[in-house]
Sequence to fold (1128 residues):
Amino acid sequence: MTVQEIFETMDYGPAPESAAAAQEWLERSGRAFGHFIGGQMTAHAGGLDSRNPADGSHLASLSQADAAAIDAAVAAARKAQADWAADGARRGRVLYAMARLVQKHARLLAVLETLENGKPIRESRDIDIPLVARHFYYHAGLARLMEDEMPAQRPHGVCGQIIPWNFPLLMLAWKVAPALAAGNTVVLKPAEDTSLTALFMAEICTQAGVPPGVVNIVTGDGRVGEMIVAHEGIDKIAFTGSTEVGRRIREATAGTGKALTLELGGKSPYIVFDDADLDSAVEGLVDAIWFNQGQVCCAGSRLLVQEGVAERFHDKLRRRMDGLRLGDPLDKCIDVGAMVDPAQLERVSRMVSEGLEADPGAEVHRTGAALPDGGCFYPPTLITGLHPASPLMQDEIFGPVLVGTTFRTPAEAVALANNSRYGLAATVWSENLNLALDVAPKLAAGVVWINATNLFDAAAPFGGLRESGFGREGGPEGLAAYTRPRAEATELSRLRPVEAPAKGAAPSDGLLDRTAKNLVGGKQARPDSGYSTPVWSPDGRLLGHVGQGNAKDIRNAVEAAGTAGAWSRSTGHGRAQILYYLAENLAAREAEFATRLRDLGQVDADGAAAEVAASVDRLFTAAAWADKFDGRAAGVPLRGMALALREPVGVIGALCADEAPLLGFVTVLGAILATGSRAVLIPSEAAPLAAMDLMQVIETSDVPAGVVNIIAGRHEDLAAPLAGHMDVQAVWSFSSSDLSEGIERASAADLKRTWVNHGRGLDWHAPAGGLKPFLEQATEVKTVWVPYGE
Amino acid sequence: MTRPVTDPTEAAALRSESHQLPQLHEPRNPGMALDTDWVARVQANTSAIERRAATLPGRRSLKKAHQAAWLLRAITLIDLTTLSGDDTEGRVRRLCAKARQPVRPDLLEALGMGPITTGAVCVYHEMVPTAVRALEGTDIPVAAVSTGFPAGLSPFRLRLEEIRESVAAGASEIDIVISRRHVLTGDWAALYDEMRQFRDACGEAHVKAILATGELGSLRNVARASLVCMMAGADFIKTSTGKESVNATLPVSLTMIRAIRDYQDATGVKVGYKPAGGISKAKDALTYLALMKDELGDRWLQPDLFRFGASSLLGDIERQLEHHVTGRYSALHRHPAG
Fold:
């Protein structure tokens, strides 16, 4: 076109970013890569190809790792770990060098990322790579501070990390930076479609002085991931990817003692209230669902608009969609690039067409912008008029497809938003701060953006609830996921109740017999089974009975806990008052509880008195924390706040310690009450009566009905219904029975949080870090972003 | 790859023989009754608008011939302006000569372009007759700043009279300043009445409403003032006098053009936009043009609906054009002064 023609049409023209430097790097590497193990690139073994999804061109040949390669990588990581963990200041310097080198190679990395992934160069250049550098900078600082700030924690050891293809280098940074900062070494597998920037990072590691073996990168498809997950030499698995694969990893690692964090899928709601700045909310959607072609786990993909403005909003949105430019991802003047590969394109196309068949009433708008010929392009699409029951409203599409419906009231918006198996992120648009800040805590999401969307920063924790996974990335909370307590847990042997005396019972003490009951919904309830178990003292006295709890008792208890949600919205001060009251009431009956503990035969008289005293103090301590475990304002580079709030997990089921029947129970109870969760507690199987006696203390201490529920029974019988219950958000086990594997496996169904002991006991008199680990486990970090400015 | 966005008649008009843009004219904005409910509903989230504005330059890029063509278009949209206390007739004649021939003919020839002119010349009332004479024989309109520019605090009666005198002197466009106090106190009826009377005083001359956005306190106020001025019949809304400490910015522009879009959606009437003050770089001009194209459409890349209020922008564009032609970075002294 001539200048004069363009002068008249005022069309945009091509504005290509040069790929020369990236292609030259590929040429220099012979377009053939092995793995990065022990600081060396291994020989190219083939088995995998890297292609440009925008035009199908071949970029390089990669290697499919075999078992020997994984073994070598794990061995190198193990060998390097102790030395790497020894010096936080040195780790800080190395991470700092990585940040600097990312910046020095910023454009090449951006181009390489776009070449292989298909995302617009604007995004890789202006968003991904700067966030990568920021992540390494931030964690350079955390590495330096860790020894002082987290003295009770140590690294896991060797971390296996498996990352997705949608943000190849950013996800590498999110995984590698905190792992290294905490003193771990890593074996990382990039996604099979997008390994090149990870392989470039291998060079950066060497230049930055990362010691050999600290970072190992192995390439390949899902089979390589499976080998990493199964490898015995790995202490922690961190995975970002689909919920389906996350579930399989949870099952595969069940009972192995491997730590696990999962960052999975989502169907994040995008709520527009009628007082919102609608144009800005429309623009936000461009960043929410058409960012990275919608291939974003936290994409605002479920549009909920208040009825009164819905028509106007949809009109504005459709017009904006028509202005999007699709094209060559390396073009600096496009908005939407290519999907990552033909399989994804096919999957999204199929999901949409099947969804539309299921929902003939849906209204579809596809961008009016022209689609490029060839390449994996899918048009930005809006589907409105759907209902919560529509498959398109429930299932993650992972493409540039926005689905939506309307709502009438804030309460309905929250209900619709939370009507999902997922819980990753949520967006709220309203000019009314009262409304926005009221809605944010009610949303089941790990991240909430108010009047903004898809904001990320290394200082702000990111991660999900429900089937969006568990664990956080970013901030000290993210670093914590790469550490474990320094204190070594001791081997725990199975403790059993005192057996019935062979020669018949000793004479009863003549007291009035007591009924064996559970505590459910604030009332004492007989066990559903109709069976009770006698409890004996070592000298053959019948101390009483406990019910034999079963799955129905668990169901009723969870139901009761579910209806006690007001507790989770109560104030820390109010909860502290009740915990202090509990402490008071237990203190008033110290002697009685000490006698009971001694009679149960796990401890002697001194030990019993000490355990009761410690229990009183534990409740007092929990009360002390109730209004202090409150999160922080993260220092994000934005005019605004990112609040990392500690929210109650919800309903926590806990199998309490056998070896400390009162103190173990009270510790769990105190932490759950202090943080606002609700409890379904299974007392010590070996010595249940101490906890059962506590029912009366609980009943006299103003604990609202349903907040604490207690079911006695065999741990083995109760663990399964608890771990399998879809309305229980977390299951803990401190039982001396071997239940960890079963609980972790069962938890995969809905990816509930688990905290199990793997057959190792805590020192309940001085649990490592005091109550802190319990408080952390009883809460979810929710990051609420509140940009401001007038 | 790009969808043609212009409608067929417009495209035909654009492909006319002349390199000079055809003088397209929309029906003038008749205004509407003041709708205070609508005004009260208007929202503008500053933080979100700033984020959008910050990413704009990174989202659109123009290279080579496209860049040159867009810069030439930008020139045709400039209100070449002098608003100084020391303006003389000689200075204004020089400016008008530059408006008639803003780019060196050899550069235009190298670019394959015929002659172009700037969108208008913008001066104080006293300079209107001089400018009108200097531009005789061209289509270049003379715009006069008016109504006690820049503060707008002279007696109301005189402000109306000033408009009438400028129109009588030959100005076909009048850039009025609004009373900022009406916005700051939320007295929308007063703003509406003032604007109405200004417009009536303009008669056939087109009226541009200068909001002095740097003095309105918030983007919400900018949005609301934009809307009220359009309801009162403004043909153009304009950011600034150039005399405030903050003049045209991308966030302000985004806010105002969103208001223009809403007004068009409600009334069907297209209102023009003029950012003024602080736009001095060719690259900024391209960003503004992309903003107009993306937010409002190609129709707003014509001088009847978009102008730059600028004095030094032209010089930078000339340098970029020479760079495009020769491949060498240019110097200001190689281009005739205005």
